[in-house]
Design goal:
Length: about 250
């Protein structure tokens, strides 16, 4: 198991994204309701946020609720929304104490009004914090985000405000929910599943992928350290050859 001292602080990933998976299986293994797994996942969220802030990671994005999660049983959706509200309300002070800004990506208009209000309040309160940005992906899916961006760009072309020749990668990125954020350099998925599940498809083009069998409620800072150390041991070539990278 990794220790903090094994991490090279000078080459931390600027942005870490996490697919927090396995809450349901974790609970089921103990004969408990899936919702107990989600509740237990909050401890892992807290530990990961704290560890990232302490190390000096600039952005941490957590996949908390996908567009597809709306298809889950109503009881589970309600429990997740209630948990979201109570977690945000309970953690805003910690975010303030640790100088962490809260942001969201996704179709937050689709969330219940109580959750929307709680999020807006926490975002406003933490808006000028500078140590780290914690981004919650809520009612988020990458295809939804890209479709929305294409619609907005098409409208601008249609109205004559934008010429098709000026549609480039930067312009597309600036129409995504993540506009202004660095792309994730490390994507972690827990629970042994090796899938991306409609998460940040554009943004993870060059991210290093890290999969662990740990179920999300069991994920702790040492597991995050393992992921970062694995990231730091990899050669990131961005399409170039190994020799080209070494001569830079
Ligand atoms: C995936 O596990 C997890 C979720 C859909 C929800 C994640 C939510 C939390 C960790 C709780 C609170 C977080 C915040 C930021 C307030 P799963 O249900 O798909 O598990 P399974 O694959 O074992 O069924």
């Amino acid at each position: 198991m990794a220790i903090k001292e094994d991490i090279q602080i000078s080459s931390l990933p600027a942005h870490i994204a996490v697919i927090m998976d396995g809450n349901g299986r974790w609970a089921k293994a103990q004969g408990k309701l899936r919702t107990f797994g989600h509740e237990s996942g909050v401890k892992a969220v807290r530990d990961t946020v704290e560890a990232c802030a302490e190390l000096g990671v600039s952005y941490l994005t957590l996949y908390a609720f996908s567009t597809e999660n709306w298809n889950r049983p109503k009881f589970e959706i309600n429990a997740l929304m209630t948990l979201l509200v109570s977690t945000i309300a309970g953690e805003t002070k910690t975010l303030m104490d640790n100088n962490i800004r809260l942001d969201t990506i996704g179709d937050t208009n689709a969330l219940p009004s109580k959750a929307r209000r709680e999020l807006e309040e926490a975002k406003k309160k933490t808006a000028s914090n500078t140590r780290m940005t914690l981004v919650l992906a809520l009612s988020y899916s990458s295809r939804w985000e890209i479709t929305k961006a294409v619609k907005e760009i098409s409208e601008k072309v249609k109205s004559g405000d934008l010429s098709p020749e000026n549609v480039n990668e930067q312009l597309i990125a600036s129409h995504l929910n993540t506009a202004g954020m660095p792309d994730p350099e490390l994507l972690i998925r827990t629970s042994g599943e090796h899938r991306i599940s409609n998460f940040l498809l554009w943004q993870i083009s060059y991210a290093e992928l890290y999969f662990t069998d740990k179920l999300w409620p069991d994920f702790r800072r040492e597991d995050l350290y393992d992921a970062i150390i694995s990231f730091q041991q990899r050669e990131r070539r961005f399409g170039k050859t190994s020799e080209q990278i070494k001569t830079v």
